Amino acid sequence: MVVGDKIPEVLGIDQHGNEIKSSDYRGKKLVLYTYPKANTSGCTAEACSLQAHKAELEAEGYMIIGVSKDKQASQQKFAETNGLEFPLIADTDTRLLQELGSWGEKVACGRRTIGTLRTTYLVNEEGVITRIFTSKEIKTKIHAEQILQVIR
Fold first, then answer.
1. Does the annotation mark 43 as catalytic?
2. Which domains are seen in the chain, by residue range?
């Protein structure tokens, strides 16, 4: 997906078993972010950055939704362990990740693999993508601050 595209209606099932739809957030803006694996250092740093600045993001009209291919139980443990108070979608079949364009080839330690590309989509009140942060841009420990700089 690119800036100007509308995100899919059905986003998936979160850590609590709730179906999350983009229409549930109509009238609100979204920070929709994809991450490779729950409970890993980079993904934990990014999630904790977003949680630490959740009130500031909400004050700007943004709700947070995370997405990874982890199972629902892993997402729930990740949320509980780190005090995350936002939906984490368990996209085990990678349908949403592929639709978003956050699933593909990546290189780590000289090895090519297929997996989740760390990406953040800022989405407006109508469900349209207004900004995309790519994995090269994202600094996990201060990602919320990066977002706040762009939206303020």
1. yes
2. 10-151 (3.40.30.10)
